[in-house]
Recover the amino acids of this structure.
């Protein structure tokens, strides 16, 4: 196969991806080989490819391709998450554009629209990942709400309920007024917010005195049911035991309670208690039996329970109530105040603490084996720093609110009986049997039962992902789950360590009795080159598909790989994509160079070519061993950098220069065969990082059968080590570099031959003399016993080398240059001696400083002697 003269990524990438797919090279079935399994962190069905996906999926693809080429049965399972909140919001917005309100639809009608939307727009991101070269087993694509996954989720809910782990109750939850659903603690993001501290006057009933209370949320006075002070606070000892106060504006009389919970030092030491709208107030309310008044509708507007500000948004009420309090003389003052406010991770709105009937999963027992697995090293975190983050969360874990007030998702399998109570069952038919048994009414019909309206949290589906993708919930002993589970590596971001990673570990031990994966590689955040997190809002996040169109997927992948290391943020710069494309161009042109060599079968391999081949074979082996070690340590970026250096510096920069024939001359068959073999090995080594260009060139290197691909070619193995070859070559390479440096210093053209003189010792690499003569363009290498003061000298380890300059340079100009250098060092020596002749300096300065000055003296004296010798020789 011939390749084009010019490297054009766009002309080869789609061709080879189609080839891989048509020959099912990414598909895996259980067999006798060792499995290597990765499950993709399922992107939201609403998602579009962004830079974080580029990083995460490039790393996964590198790992899976390398495993495939290492002889393992590599299986990368793709899929999508149904993303309850995000998808429902998309569908509601789509309906609104059509003039349809969700409230006007039945659940079934809404879900028909939702599935239509999913079929039309969902999964775009998986198609986009193909552009990147992602070698997923697309035949295994799963969706967290498909039939198999849904049945598994429902079974798990029922199982955990039967075990007493799932319970239902009224609790204070994080409420998202935009999505109108409860959120788990992990879905709340706390941000520093600038607001005000409002000082309100609560009149003590039966007196003219007031108690001032500081609050950041004056609108919640509508739900106040007590005022609390610390019993130790001397400021409030005057209050009678049965004191009551009047809520400002509202006029409600509420009791004063005393509890050490109140911080005497904060604000005025008095706390308004609103049990329905604050977690801590709720606990006080439970303790003292306080009334609970929920003042908000689900959308964050004020309800009609108090009769004030009805239907108005909570933040508009905050603005209005400040003026109303001031007008009534009930606002003492306001102060600027900064505090942390919780925001919905899904919709970005401020969450509202709200009392709500929800379903919860008790986490303590589930957390114990999962904590132990990570802390004892059964599951490895890369980097390890995240182990402590994980441990802290697991040891302080709270019960998981798993219900969501949505329609898109797996509906909770709880069925309510006509006369109270409920049953939990995986199907409606089983629920009916249970309901009849529980109620003792054999005449009950399905129509008599009402299924719970809520759906399960999306994460309640994805926490089962490593098991459910192999249908291990419904069929726990099927051949696939027995073969592929536990999976090997998980690549994900640290931002979902609690949402997903920890929960998958818990599910693994609960439902398989073992870990779900062996290693978790945490990526960093992709930032721009000045350190800002990439986002659409900042406008600093490029479209990955645009970058792929401009630079090719291989160039884009290299940009990700060269700038990332586990757990560290990626400082992305588009120039890195250009560097990636340039590397592709380097590979392309190197292949075209060797492919253009004319071979003479009768020509013998020279000693220069033989030693070059021997050296590169050893250099390749060294890099292969180093790259293996980098992968074992999950230093994927470092592995790529070594492969890049090997090709760019060792192979292209040195080896090809050593073996390429002179212009118009043929090459010998032995060297050409070795060079093409090295190129083949390099393409296989680079393939996991840059799959497209390596496939194109590998196919061109030799005739291939239909369906044969570098994807499943074996990873190259290092040749047997030959001690000393690399070290001795490095000596020769330094000689070549030093001669070239002399040429630059003396303005001698590279084409002009030079002689080299050597005072030979054990560090002179005599076996590489032919190579040194060719690469440094030397007419001869002669051995001498005394140094030549008129020659340009250099030292390689302990060996002295001299390049005779007679007739090569302008003697007078060289004398002037050396004389200038001599004058500089003589002046420098005078300044050093001035310090050392100062007895006070020598006696009082630290010994290290004096020693440093004496070293400067010795160095300057040696240079002066050498310069005088060179000047004398030239004269």
């Amino acid at each position: 196969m011939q390749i084009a003269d010019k490297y054009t990524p766009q002309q080869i990438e789609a061709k080879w991806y189609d080839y891989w797919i048509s020959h099912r090279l990414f598909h895996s079935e259980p067999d006798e080989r060792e499995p290597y399994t990765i499950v993709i962190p399922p992107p939201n069905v609403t998602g579009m490819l962004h830079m974080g996906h580029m990083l995460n999926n490039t790393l996964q693809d590198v790992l899976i391709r390398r495993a495939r080429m290492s002889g393992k049965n590599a299986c990368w399972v793709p899929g999508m998450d149904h993303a309850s909140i995000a998808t429902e919001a998309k569908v509601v917005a789509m309906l609104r554009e059509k003039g349809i309100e969700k409230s006007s639809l039945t659940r079934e009608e809404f879900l028909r629209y939702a599935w239509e939307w999913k079929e039309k727009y969902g999964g775009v991101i998986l198609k986009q990942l193909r552009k990147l070269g992602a070698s997923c087993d697309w035949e295994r694509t799963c969706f967290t709400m498909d039939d198999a996954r849904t049945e598994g989720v429902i079974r798990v809910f029922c199982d955990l309920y039967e075990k007493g782990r799932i319970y239902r109750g009224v609790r204070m939850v994080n409420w998202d007024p935009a999505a109108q659903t409860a959120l788990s603690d992990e879905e709340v993001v706390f941000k520093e917010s600038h607001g005000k501290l409002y000082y309100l006057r609560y009149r003590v009933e039966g007196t003219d005195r007031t108690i001032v209370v500081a609050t950041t949320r004056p609108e919640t006075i509508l739900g106040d049911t007590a005022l609390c002070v610390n019993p130790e606070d001397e400021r409030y000892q005057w209050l009678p035991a049965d004191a009551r106060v009047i809520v400002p504006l509202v006029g409600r009389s509420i009791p004063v309670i005393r509890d050490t919970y109140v911080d005497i030092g904060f604000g005025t030491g008095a706390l308004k208690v609103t049990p329905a709208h604050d977690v801590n107030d709720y606990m006080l309310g439970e303790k003292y039996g306080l009334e609970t008044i929920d003042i908000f509708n689900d959308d964050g507007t004020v309800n009609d329970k108090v009769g004030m500000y009805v239907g108005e948004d909570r933040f508009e009420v905050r603005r209005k109530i400040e003026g109303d309090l001031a007008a009534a003389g009930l606002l003492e003052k306001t102060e600027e105040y900064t505090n942390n406010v919780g925001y919905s991770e899904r919709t970005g709105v401020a969450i509202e603490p709200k009392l709500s009937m929800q379903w919860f999963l008790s986490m303590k027992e589930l957390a114990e084996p999962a904590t132990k697995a990570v802390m004892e090293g059964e599951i490895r975190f890369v980097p390890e720093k995240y182990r402590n983050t994980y441990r802290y969360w697991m040891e302080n874990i709270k019960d998981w609110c798993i219900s969501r007030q949505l329609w898109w998702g797996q509906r909770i399998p709880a069925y309510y009986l006509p006369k109270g109570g409920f049953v939990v069952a995986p199907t409606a038919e089983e629920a009916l049997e249970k309901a009849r048994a529980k109620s003792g009414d054999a005449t009950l019909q399905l129509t008599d039962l009402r299924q719970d309206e809520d759906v399960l949290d999306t994460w309640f589906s994805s926490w089962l992902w490593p098991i459910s993708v192999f249908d291990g919930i419904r069929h726990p002993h099927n051949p696939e789950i027995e073969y592929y589970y536990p999976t090997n590596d998980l690549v994900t971001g640290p931002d979902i360590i609690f949402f997903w990673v920890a929960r998958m570990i818990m599910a693994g031990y609960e439902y398989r009795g073992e870990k779900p994966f062996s290693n978790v590689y945490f990526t960093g955040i992709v930032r721009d080159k000045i350190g800002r997190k990439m986002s659409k809002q900042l406008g600093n996040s490029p479209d990955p598909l645009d970058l792929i169109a401009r630079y090719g997927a291989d160039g884009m992948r290299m940009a990700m790989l060269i700038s990332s290391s586990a757990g560290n943020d990626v400082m992305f710069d588009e120039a890195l994509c250009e560097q990636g494309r340039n590397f592709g161009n380097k590979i392309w042109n190197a292949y075209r160079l060797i492919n253009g060599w004319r071979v003479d079968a009768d020509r013998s391999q020279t000693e220069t070519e033989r030693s070059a081949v021997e050296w590169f074979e050893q250099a390749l082996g060294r890099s292969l061993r180093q790259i293996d070690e980098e992968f074992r340590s999950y230093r994927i970026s470092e592995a790529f950098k070594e492969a890049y250096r090997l090709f760019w510096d060792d192979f292209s920069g040195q080896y090809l220069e050593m073996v390429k024939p002179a212009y118009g001359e043929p090459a010998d068959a032995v060297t050409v065969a070795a060079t093409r073999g090295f190129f083949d090995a390099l393409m296989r080594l680079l393939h996991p990082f840059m799959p497209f260009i390596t496939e194109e060139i590998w196919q061109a290197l030799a005739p291939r059968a239909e369906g044969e691909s570098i994807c499943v070619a074996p990873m190259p193995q290092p040749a047997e080590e030959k001690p000393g070859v690399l070290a001795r070559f490095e000596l020769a390479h330094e000689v070549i570099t030093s001669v070239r440096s002399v040429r630059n210093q003396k303005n001698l053209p590279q084409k002009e031959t030079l002689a080299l003189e050597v005072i030979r010792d054990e560090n002179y690499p005599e076996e590489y003399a032919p190579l040194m003569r060719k690469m440094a363009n030397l007419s001869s290498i002669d051995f001498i016993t005394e140094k030549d003061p008129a020659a340009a000298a250099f030292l390689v380890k302990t060996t002295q080398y001299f390049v005779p300059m007679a007739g090569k340079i302008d003697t007078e100009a060289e004398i002037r240059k050396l004389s200038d250098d001599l004058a500089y060092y003589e002046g420098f020596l005078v300044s050093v001696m001035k310090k050392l002749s100062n007895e006070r300096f020598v006696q009082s300065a630290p010994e290290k400083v004096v020693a440093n000055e004496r070293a400067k003296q010795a160095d300057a004296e040696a240079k002066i002697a050498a310069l005088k010798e060179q000047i004398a020789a030239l004269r």
